[in-house]
Design a protein that fits this description.
single chain, about 750 residues, alpha+beta, Immunoglobulin-like, Serine Threonine Protein Phosphatase 5, Tetratricopeptide repeat, Ankyrin_rpt, protein kinase activity
Length: about 750
Amino acid sequence: MTNPSSGETILRKIRIELTKAMNLFSVNNTPGEAFFTFLINKKEKRVKINRNTVNIYPKPPSNTIEFTGIDTNSNVIDIEFHNKERNKPNKIYTGQILLNSLLPYDTHHCIELVLDPFNKDNQTSTSNDCKEDITNEKLKYKDGIIPTITLSCYLFQDREKEDEKVLSKDQTPLISAVQKNSLFLVIYCLEHFKASINQKDDLGNTALHTAAIEYNNEHIILTLLNNSHVDVNIKNLDENTPLHFFCSYFRNPNCSEAFNMFLKRGADVNALNRLHETPLHRAIQNPSIRMLLVELLLRNGALVNFQTEGGQTALHWAVYMQRVDLLSILLLYGADINIPNKQGETPLSICENKYKGTAFARTFIYILELIKYLEHIGADPTSIKLLVKNKMFKWTLAKVSPRILFQMGVTENEEQMKLVRNFKLIKDIDPEKAIKEIPSKRTLFEGEIPEKGWIRKKETCEYTGEVRKVEFGTILTAILEENNSTTVIIRTFERSNTNVKLFNENSKILITLKQCNGLLKYFGVLEEEKALIMEYCDNGSLMDLLQRQTIGWKLVFDLAIQIIDAISFLHKQGILHRILKDSNILIVKKKIDDNNEYDDVYTIKLSNFALFELGIESEKIKKMNGLCAAPEIISNELFSDKSDIYSFGIILWQLVYKCIYNVYSKPFEEYIIQNLKEPQIIQQIVSSNLRPVIPPPTPPRLATLLRLCVLKEPETRPTLNEIESTLVACEKEYNNNSSLWDASIEVKSN
């Protein structure tokens, strides 16, 4: 690989630290030799191991090796563990690390690796010791040992040593290395200079202060925190600790590991600076990850009612910002609504006077009312947190069932029964409290995603949820800066060459795509972070909906027609979904006021539609489709618009099955119960035309549509227009004679 601008080959430096090795020997303290060999192309380096114990925790510098001048044609690090016990056959165990997995540069990767007995067919290169043992046929394995190792790995661009020379003359070399935002130079300073890690600059800031105040590089912060001599409670001239600065300025949502290291090193979460601010006060003002930090602090002993020099508590600031999420969590941890600041204002009085009549003020009162009520009936603290988090205000509780509580995370049966028993006694239900939103049903609006503003900076998003792993990367929740009531999902792509290409292609498709109500809305991209900004659907997926509540024919037709409209919209723009299933159909729920009766209205949102338009290998698409895959996909034949229609047929079957039997069923579950394995079912979908059994009570016109959608030959399946016409006819039939259709439900229920 070469640098596109200069044509020069990029050279790399690789650093590997062996931090832990487990299950190395069958018996402790045997005579002989043991070592690890690390190989890249023809270069090899060795780390010797003491045979005294089965499990070892090597210390620097003996556990550390570095390779320099590695060009980008090298793709793999081969690892060998050699166990040469005296008078016994030699044993070699091997593993591999892909160099691309260490991207991006200047980051730390903790890798746990299980080593396998040597197999020459799996090795890209072998050490000289290994070749000798193979030649002499010395390798034997009888003891069942499976060594496991933990490595800290770093990938740097190889550079001239000018920076190291400059730092050697610096009065505060470690702080200067941090200011250069160079993890390599930070490690170099810690290993080569005797200056204290707690050395201060003219403002009293240490390297840890500097790392927290200037950069989002958690790798540098973690490297400093991993040093046992670091003082995390040292104060600068303004009496700020490094944790104050971390809570103020850190922007990366991957903050929990660094925060936990602060705690491990004894950080005081209630330390006061010169303005009497605690880290909690500073976290409230963090524009990017305030909710993540506030929750971490409160969970770990931060006192919620500390007042600043001006008398402000964290709750005062949450009210000033009109942040319901902050308000909720602070109240849950005991924030006092009646503490006055130096102007005599309490959080409650600010809300009543400044925001009177607003949705924020009403929500403030609802949360207070809910917490007070739940504490009065003796609800478990965990239940209170879950109900507040889900905004289950008091006037909504009468309809809450044990199943809904379970879906929210209240899993104890006794707690569920106690809550539901009390909820049924609630009399003061005020329908005027319901939010009157009247969404249009089944109305597709078309509009371009604006290219202006499509590429955003990370500063325009505030992260509010924890990072969660998904296919190809991670997701987390956030709010957009220009409208702090808009919650979004940030989907990042892991930095492999394939995933970066996937992100780039996704962006190209989405920026030219028209939008409609039935597609998940996209707000733009964070280009540097390789992340998409997407609409947040807080009611889960169609799978979640079918698992947790009863549905009738009216909702079956409504959802099915919405899905067909959205698929049709995609197909008209030349995009096939390719992985249409209930978990990829998200749900938005709103309430409408219909003659003073409040009904739930559900809007579907197709998700992941662009992701699978991008040349992902057919085997991966087949695997992700599972039992929703059309026969032609299983047979590795051409994917077409009729493949999406087959998948829709499976979804329609799930809707009908749930409506008639009031049971959620995965596709082909009736065969799984008969002990057929998924691979057998997939094989029989093609070979024996196996399909889900249509419930016998299904009305004839709908049953025929189900059969047609899942026919084996793609060209024999109906078109989207034909499907919609049939569904509309079925809906009309139902409206004219609902008792006849409802009887199909009663047939099985009785």
